[in-house]
Amino acid sequence: MLKKFEIWTLLSVSLVAIIFLFWLIYGREANSIEGMTFLKSLSFLNAGFNFMASVFLVLGYKKIKNKEIEAHKKCMGTAFVFSALFLVSYITYHTFHGDQKFLGEGVIRPIYFFILISHIFLSVVALPMVLMTFYAGLKSKLVFHKKMAVWTFPIWLYVSVTGVLIVVLFKFYSS
Fold first, then answer.
1. Three-class SS string for the chain?
2. Which of 35, 100, 115, 116 has its CA 20 to 30 A from that of 165?
3. What is the mean pLDDT of residues 15-43?
4. What is the pLDDT of residue 163?
5. What is the pLDDT of residue 93?
6. What is the C-alpha to C-alpha distance for residues 103 and 1, in angstroms, rounded to an integer?
7. Which tops the pLDDT comparison, 92 or 150?
8. 39 assigned to some structural domain
9. Would residue 151 be called left, alpha or beta, if left means φ above 0 and alpha means ψ between -120 and 50 degrees?
10. Domain of residue 85, residue span
11. Looking at the predicted structure, is the pLDDT value of residue 91 above 90?
12. Would you say residue 34 lies in a domain?
């Protein structure tokens, strides 16, 4: 089991990150992207990071089911790195680009917003879970790690996959 201090530290880091992201996206005006055309393509880079995180999450799951522990650790570490790269790129994108409106109409609109809202809600849930599960694995707190991973894996995978889907839908229906 993780110590109370470790749990509270990871929860606190998660809370600060979540508050910062909501402020970044919804609580301020974006900076100018004039002359920074590369920023327009960051949403595709973000989708790529999410896609790669998804791939390594599934590979890591397969590895642990086959009792390939070292391969599992490498896959999950790689998924964690891709998710971290996504977060840095996402913050960069939203610092300069801000929030955008979804222009899709008809049946796709409620589908998009269901995916988006569930993605946002579960990403808030996933962040502390991923940090605790990953940390427990690093500290060889395997009983706690396994109990958390049963819940963390599907939520983290859902958030990663829907992150890609959101970019695809947004670009297809808002261009």
1. CCCHHHHHHHHHHHHHHHHHHHHHHHCCCCCCCCCCHHHHHHHHHHHHHHHHHHHHHHHHHHHHHCCCHHHHHHHHHHHHHHHHHHHHHHHHHHHHCCCCCCCCCCCHHHHHHHHHHHHHHHHHHHHHHHHHHHHHHHCCCHHHHHHHHHHHHHHHHHHHHHHHHHHHHHHHHHC
2. 35
3. 75
4. 95
5. 82
6. 47
7. 150
8. no
9. alpha
10. 44-174
11. no
12. no
Looking at residue 99, its amino acid is D
Is 36 part of any domain? no
Which tens digits make up the pLDDT trace of 112-126?
999 999 999 999 999
Report the domain count for the chain. 1
- The pLDDT value given to residue 5: 81
125 within domain boundaries = yes
**Rounded CA separation 15/78 (Å):** 24
Please name the residue that has the structure tokens 């109409």: 105
